[in-house]
Amino acid sequence: MIRPRFSLMPVLIAALYAAPGAALAADAPKIAPGDTLLTLSAEGKSTRAPDIASISAGVATTARTAAGAMAANAAAMNRVIDALKAAGIAERDIQTSELNLNPAYANRGPGDDSQPRITGYTASNQVSVRDRDLPRLGRVIDALVDAGANNINGPSFGVDQPDAAQDEARLAAIKTARARADLYARAAGLHVARIVSISEGGGYNPLPVFRAMAMNAASAPTPVAAGEVSLTASVNVEFELAP
Taking the CB of residue 28, how many other CB atoms lie within 10 A of it? Predict the structure, then answer.
């Protein structure tokens, strides 16, 4: 008995050729015949007084040996961490962010082709610190300097619970997009029938970061102005315009 043979190849080829077109058709917005598709981008913003600040603080030490540099650095960093805790910073808000050990080389004169000579080692350790009590931030910075921190960067400000402010920015972005859509529709003699799609982006717009190198602390706390932080939301909205 002869069994008929069937090949799946034509079916597979047909599926491969049909798939791109089908995907495009599925992705294309569906609007009524004769209507117009309008795509707009808009941004909304809300502002808040910050309630949290982040700074980076650390120490760099040098010694003739790698072990000596690391030991001196560990002792200095322990003093910095103890000072942070004494200033009221919670342990969960102190996190090691960078640890480095690098050789130091002797300077070579012009024409000196000899191998570089190691003269010592430099160890550095940085911690990221979050302060949830902004009025004390200047005193925290001064405590770091007093404890021996010789590299301080920051602060950068933020909002610890940003959801409500972010939602305000989203609402503002949608209102702006709708107002523009109405404007375009009137100019074209049409009206907005509906929103076809919405996609979102956006986030924090932090204030410029204040940078400070350690120096002898004055009797008055280091002044720190928190200002405001902006939260933004950007949307891409497709509108259907009808006669």
Answer: 9
Amino acid sitting at position 112: D
- Domains observed in the chain: 52-106+118-160 (3.30.70.2970)
Q: What is d(CA 101, CA 63) in angstroms, rounded to the nearest whole number?
A: 11
In this predicted structure, the answer to whether residue 192 has a pLDDT above a threshold of 60 is yes
Question: Residue 10's pLDDT band (boundaries 50, 70, 90)?
Answer: very low
End-to-end CA distance of the chain: 68
Contacts for 169 with CB less than 8 Å, ≥ 6 apart: 44, 45, 46, 202, 231, 232, 233
Contact 192, 130 (CB under 8 A): no
Q: Residues in the chain, how many?
A: 243
The answer to whether residue 233 scores a pLDDT higher than 80 is yes
Q: At what angle do helices 137-146 and 66-86 cross, to 10 degrees?
A: 150
Which tens digits make up the pLDDT trace of 84-101?
Answer: 999 999 999 999 999 999
